[in-house]
């Protein structure tokens, strides 16, 4: 991670290695037979789920249920993190 301002989100600063998806699927959409738009990977538990542009919004539901604060884009070529509670974004 880049050196960030000390006032920057502590959740994002705590990420030392970004977890990425191996199989590029939303695990919950597969179970439900629904489709996803983009994928995000939880940086606490490593689950990969669909984004808010997807009908089911599984990653946001995961955040509200589990309170895991940081996700990473699982889209090829995208290198960013988002912190839900602090609503802060960081590229890596």
Describe this structure in words.
The protein is α+β, with helices and mostly antiparallel strands and 92 residues long. Helix content is 21%, strand content 21%. It is built from three helices and five strands, in the order ααββαβββ. A five-stranded antiparallel β-sheet has the order 2-1-3-4-5. A hairpin with a 5-residue loop joins β1 and β2. The longest helix has 9 residues. The protein starts with 9 loop residues before the first helix and ends with a strand. The mean pLDDT is 94.
Helices and strands, with pairings:
Blueprint: H1 10-13, H2 27-32, E1 39-42, E2 48-50, H3 58-66, E3 70-73, E4 80-83, E5 88-91
Antiparallel strand pairs: 1-2, 1-3, 3-4, 4-5
Briefly characterize the structure:
With about 90 residues, the protein is α+β, with helices and mostly antiparallel strands. Helices cover about 20% and strands about 20% of the residues. The mean pLDDT is about 95.
What descriptive keywords fit this protein?
92 residues; alpha+beta; 5-stranded antiparallel beta sheet; Znf_C2H2_type; UBP-type zinc finger domain-containing protein; Znf_UBP; Znf_RING/FYVE/PHD
Helix content: 10-25%
Give the percentage of residues in beta strands: 15-25%
Question: Using only CA atoms, what is the Rg?
Answer: 13 Å
Q: Based on DSSP secondary structure assignment, what is the total number of beta strands?
A: 5
In order across it, which strands form the biggest sheet?
2-1-3-4-5
H and E string: HHEEHEEE
- The dominant shape is globular
Would you identify the regions where 5 or more consecutive residues have pLDDT less than 50? none
- Indicate the mean pLDDT: 94
N→C terminal distance: 6 Å
Sheet of most strands? 5 strands, antiparallel
């Amino acid at each position: 991670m880049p050196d960030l301002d000390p006032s920057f989100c502590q959740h994002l600063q705590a990420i030392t290695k970004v977890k990425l998806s191996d199989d590029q699927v939303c695990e919950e959409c597969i179970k439900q037979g629904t489709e996803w738009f983009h994928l995000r990977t939880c940086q606490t538990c490593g689950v990969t789920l669909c984004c808010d542009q997807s009908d089911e919004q599984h990653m946001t539901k995961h955040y509200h249920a589990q309170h895991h604060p940081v996700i990473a884009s699982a889209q090829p070529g995208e290198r960013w993190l988002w912190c839900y509670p602090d609503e802060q974004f960081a590229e890596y």
